[in-house]
Amino acid sequence: MNHFISDNVTGAHPAIMDAVVACNEGIAPSYGNDELTKTLNDAFSNLFETDVAVIPCTSGTAANALSLSLIAGPTNAICAHEHSHVYQDECNAPEFFTGGARVSPIHGADGKLDLGALSASFSRKGDYHAAQPSAATFSQATESGSVYSLAEIKKVAGICRANELKLHMDGARFSNAVVSLGCSAAEMTWKAGVDMLSFGATKNGCMAAEAIVLFDPSLADDAMYRAKRSGQLLSKMRFVTAQLLAFLDNDLWLDNARVANNAATSLAEGLSNKSCAQLASVPQANMLFVRLDVDAVAALEKAGLAGYVDAKGMMRLCTSWRTTESDIQAFLNCLT
Amino acid sequence: MNHFISDNVTGAHPAIMDAVVACNEGIAPSYGNDELTKTLNDAFSNLFETDVAVIPCTSGTAANALSLSLIAGPTNAICAHEHSHVYQDECNAPEFFTGGARVSPIHGADGKLDLGALSASFSRKGDYHAAQPSAATFSQATESGSVYSLAEIKKVAGICRANELKLHMDGARFSNAVVSLGCSAAEMTWKAGVDMLSFGATKNGCMAAEAIVLFDPSLADDAMYRAKRSGQLLSKMRFVTAQLLAFLDNDLWLDNARVANNAATSLAEGLSNKSCAQLASVPQANMLFVRLDVDAVAALEKAGLAGYVDAKGMMRLCTSWRTTESDIQAFLNCLT
Amino acid sequence: MNHFISDNVTGAHPAIMDAVVACNEGIAPSYGNDELTKTLNDAFSNLFETDVAVIPCTSGTAANALSLSLIAGPTNAICAHEHSHVYQDECNAPEFFTGGARVSPIHGADGKLDLGALSASFSRKGDYHAAQPSAATFSQATESGSVYSLAEIKKVAGICRANELKLHMDGARFSNAVVSLGCSAAEMTWKAGVDMLSFGATKNGCMAAEAIVLFDPSLADDAMYRAKRSGQLLSKMRFVTAQLLAFLDNDLWLDNARVANNAATSLAEGLSNKSCAQLASVPQANMLFVRLDVDAVAALEKAGLAGYVDAKGMMRLCTSWRTTESDIQAFLNCLT
Amino acid sequence: MNHFISDNVTGAHPAIMDAVVACNEGIAPSYGNDELTKTLNDAFSNLFETDVAVIPCTSGTAANALSLSLIAGPTNAICAHEHSHVYQDECNAPEFFTGGARVSPIHGADGKLDLGALSASFSRKGDYHAAQPSAATFSQATESGSVYSLAEIKKVAGICRANELKLHMDGARFSNAVVSLGCSAAEMTWKAGVDMLSFGATKNGCMAAEAIVLFDPSLADDAMYRAKRSGQLLSKMRFVTAQLLAFLDNDLWLDNARVANNAATSLAEGLSNKSCAQLASVPQANMLFVRLDVDAVAALEKAGLAGYVDAKGMMRLCTSWRTTESDIQAFLNCLT
């Protein structure tokens, strides 16, 4: 099986599964009124060192689109990187959840929003003929495998604040970015000017659990109605909550991300010794991009280990909390 | 804890949980491309004795609204019982998923669509000023605890077909209805004229698993894009699939429903011997409605065993696959 | 030709047409930046004796739906009479413009909202499973030909205010109602608690001109973007504005409505002398409902003068600013 | 007053106004059931030499967005030039009318779709994570003042057909393009592979009248419900129809466009003799772009004759059916 094609091919971490099994004891009020879910806001407030409101979701697409619907209405625009998951891979979910907001593609190197392009997208402020930008979203870590520095996040946030946009972080790989920067969850989010976060847990060890983290808890009420309306308010919510709590418990989220990031570094080092491979850059999180000779691609495909190859001929490789040194060696051994 | 307030307070049946744990072995392609999910259409086709396409969902609201979006566009109307979950309890999910279709409330005794009222709702066919009915939905079992007979379903379906409406069944309690009628899944659906089904599994023993069953598999492609767009296409889909397959396996779905239905019958019998209680009707599935004396309500509330009381003073009581004879006795013992 | 089938079969009043022709002189900035349109807010503020913002529209459906979109979001409900134009005759325009709000039908005699039913519709406040009412709309004059008294409007408005709903008035026949009550435009709207108004002009003498009147001018900005988005921001807006200004000029709107209302009274008097006719009630505005013998209906149909007959066998007859005494006599002469 | 800032600053051509006045005689059935509107399909079918269905609209934005909603659903993408009116100047109207389709920006020189970029936008066919292109739209004449040749249209249409996309033409300046190419309306549309057209009449001499022309008349029914739902089905439709019919009558549309195009040519010739001016290209329709010295811009602004200046410093100048030789001379006289 292909370990490197995505970080979502892994199953659930044993500790996550144990928590799910454990929470099955007895009966519990439905729709998030159970005792476990009632602790969710506190658990995340503790992690983020400030009062937050949490809306559990079962997919990252739902978490992103629902978040954006809180800060962009149907006559607004949402600034997003042209290669972002939000713009490329959610089949109009942002348009759906917002009731028709425009997602405006912003270019930028390394999967990061170009600050000049971001600013330029505000040039028609007050013009009734143009959707008004009210929100920006960026991925941390990015879909290009890079990680915004805290200073970079603050610059994006500063531009947003100056132009009255709210800032959303797509944290499908939040854990990997925190480990990469060696900072706190708070530092990488609200302390840097982020207004809301899709806190990803599925890729990094859960079954199906994401959390919208609202640094402005007053948005929670609107979010709850929208969660219900979009089918995200599960009757047996405790099974999602249990995953999220176990994910935070004992820093499992950080431990798992550390394994994944280290695996990416290790894989990159191995590739750097191969003449058939040309790394795009040093991986900062759990993803790397490499240009491979034709023979190398063929060998990987034969072994069922090839990653996606993009239009520019770069192969994407993902590592995960489950990647082992022997997985990496098996991969490298395919290459001469 | 209150066992009778809803059938969604129960957790997961052990066999479901075992299946979830079991499917966690190894890695698997994401977004439903795993080996387990590939068998889903076959498993349901086998159950329904015809080729069907299945779209897994994580909530009944999503399953209903996504289903309806396949058969009702934004200038259409959807005929639904005025007391149905679709009309009352989904916070505009049908309007959301369909892009603004009208849900037209239809009255009718026992939670069932009145055939005359249904027909009357088609009176403005071809009038550009009125949303055109293109779909009808009904719940089986109903939210009033009743069950449509096969003949009744055929009548509803006949009216729909004659007026070019597609017919959706909200089967949140599908299992309970099948057990109640003693018929096959096929007989209660496509053989009676039903076009699509929200096959409910969560209430009857799963964690979070519902299946849209399309008796016209050509709709599956549209449904998949809509599933993705609404955040229902899970990356680790196998965890939902595993629940659904285990639910079907060895007729667990029927066994569980039988327990629930029998518990309702047993509870009703017990109540019929209480002078403080007046049953609305003989329960047909796993729900019953009872009018209780003030003292009786107070006693139940004190014991934490009261069900919802509606505007007309009727208390709703649900039973489940987990309800035991001792649960029932504890309830009855509260009443003098 | 059938004069009585609707008040929108008439063309434009000569004074309106003259104004349209007159405003065609020279060139003018587009999209409402012309000198004429700049005076629109002042003209309506003068009429309503308070600062208002005006959004011109080309149809009543657009005016109603756009108005409602300012006060009801996609997880909200809008309370409307079950026989209202908004609920019956706009082919899901409210759902469309609001992004999926529910229009909740409220019953009530004479086309007026029943206060108890209105209040009952708020019973699920704070329940995430139910769309939350945020707006109510009522028609003045109503589609049943009745007119709310000022006291009645204040009662509706009081209930709305107490429950944090905004109140919209569908004034397709606003002029007729003002004439009927003999009050001022201010008294019938904001002084009675109305938050916004679809001020109808088309039926009463314009070609295609309606005005959304916002008693809270801070909503104008949102409304303008929504107007553009829905295709209501005309490039040559002056042609709509000219109609609205001429409509207000010299109280043309009141004069026209007086003709129409008097014609209805006159027609009703004539009908009250016919044994074949049974009036539903004394007309209060420019519409009346009458039950006619089969022969009478046939005679009218033969003469091309029959109005719409509803499901209960009542024929609706409308009068207009163009209805003459001879039109009325021609109608009555058909009846023996 | 500034004649050159846009072709929508002009009022209505006298013949259009005469037709509007003339159609005001007597009463007429509403909502397009009048005798005039009944001839609309025939008039346009005659013009286009094939059976077409026509939906009148009151703005170009409505015509474009409503058209696109017929061929792009909420999980689809619409390919449009990145500088097109549809993408830039309609404040999310396409997203609104389609229920959330993505408008995918396609680059290309001279305001025309680059064929390679268009083809590249189809690369994710069948991928549930990406909105599926189902429609393309292009402007004829373009917003850059250029005109697609018939061969160019056929190429775009060929690519669309090969990829199962429907092709919409935004003909806000349709007349100018037909005159420019010297071809027939049929040759420039369905004979070249265009599926539907927003036929613009407002800019070229009407008050507020656009026509959606459907070369597949079977779409008319869906279009009518959508027209009603969006407030485009006017009660007194004859006033729009009268404009459209007068516009076609005696080839007024062609005569007007010829005046406008010739004025652009004349203006360009005048500018080519000015050392302060550098034309972007020879105008093909009624728009031209010119780079002017700072002093020249200042002089025009002082005289109130400056056009819009874009981000690249090019001034846009529009001519119209009302532009006279003396208007042009007045403009040129401002420049030394």
Describe the structure.
4 copies of one chain form a homotetramer. Chain A is of the alpha/beta class. Chain A has 2 domains: 14-251, 3-Layer(aba) Sandwich (Aspartate Aminotransferase, domain 2); 253-333, Alpha-Beta Complex (Aspartate Aminotransferase, domain 1), CATH 3.90.1150.10. Helices cover 39% and strands 16% of the residues of chain A. Chain A is built from 14 helices and 10 strands. The first copy, chain A, has helices at residues 14-22, 35-38, 40-48, 60-69, 85-88, 93-98, 115-120, 150-162, 174-181, 220-229, 238-248, 252-272, 294-303, 325-333; strands at 53-57, 76-81, 102-106, 132-139, 166-171, 196-200, 210-214, 277-279, 287-292, 314-318. In chain A, the strands form 2 sheets. In chain A, strands 1-7-6-5-4-2-3 form a 7-stranded mixed β-sheet, sandwiched between helices. Chain A has a 3-stranded antiparallel β-sheet with strand order 8-9-10. In chain A, α9 (174-181) crosses α12. The longest helix of chain A has 21 residues, at 252-272. Chain A is globular, with a radius of gyration of 20 Å. Chain A starts with 13 loop residues before the first helix and ends with a helix. At the A-B interface, α1, α4, α10 and α11 of A face α1, α4, α10 and α11 of B.
Fill in the keyword field for this structure.
Aspartate Aminotransferase, domain 2; homotetramer; 336 residues
